[in-house]
Amino acid sequence: MSHNPHWAQEFEQTRSLILWGTEGWVTDLQHIGSTALPDGVAQPVIDVLAGLRDLRGLNEAAALIEGLNYVRVASPDWCAEELTAMLQKPRVGAPTHTVLLVRQGEGTWRRTLAIRDWLACHPEDWQQFQALKRAHFTAGCDALERYTTAKDQFFHALEQLLK
Questions:
Q1: pLDDT for the residue numbered 95
Q2: Predicted confidence band at 156 (pLDDT cuts at 50, 70, 90)?
């Protein structure tokens, strides 16, 4: 769907709730994904990057977030090299929120924010990514699989550019 200006407010509410609910384990939350950037299209899912200073609190923080009506799901392949946890809300049905718990300042944290910030500052690349999404989501029944592959390639190319 087209960008919804209420997504920023929804992130801020989510941020406050998670910071309060994780009892100090989560020290920073960042709005990521297409809902974090204006003038685009996105699935209406608020994607959140949650930073922990100490990964010994990963399971504790995940359990506390689960208590906020989230369910733990498999972490994405693109951050498989690090210890992470991913949670989605609500527990059943289509997700409205996704939280990725990672070590603050480490690889996944840095890469994810660098890509978000690059797209925010480089409208030509943001528009190229928007065109990629539109092309794949109007392309038929295997569109999600093809989109995921194309998105991974797009972000990998951006990561190489940022090195």
A1: 94
A2: confident
Residue 104's Cβ-side half-sphere holds a number of Cα atoms within 13 Å equal to 14
33 contact partners, CB below 8 Å, separation of at least 6? 42, 45, 46, 47, 98, 116
Q: For 5-56, how does the pLDDT look when each residue is reduced to its tens digit (9 = 90+)?
A: 999 999 999 999 999 999 999 999 999 999 999 888 888 999 999 999 999 9
HEC string of the chain equals: CECCCHHHHHHHHHHHHHHHHCCCCEEEEEEECHHHCCCCECCCCEEEEEEECCHHHHHHHHHHHHCCCCEEECCCHHHCCCCCEEEEECCCCCCCEEEEEEECCCHHHHHHHHHHHHHHHCHHHHHHHHHHHHHHHCCCCCHHHHHHHHHHHHHHHHHHHHC
Which pTM value belongs to this model?
Answer: 0.89
In angstroms, rounded to a whole number, what is the distance separating the alpha carbons of residues 119 and 125?
A: 6
Question: How far is it, in rounded angstroms, from Cα 100 to Cα 6?
Answer: 21
C-alpha to C-alpha distance for 95 and 80, rounded to whole angstroms: 21
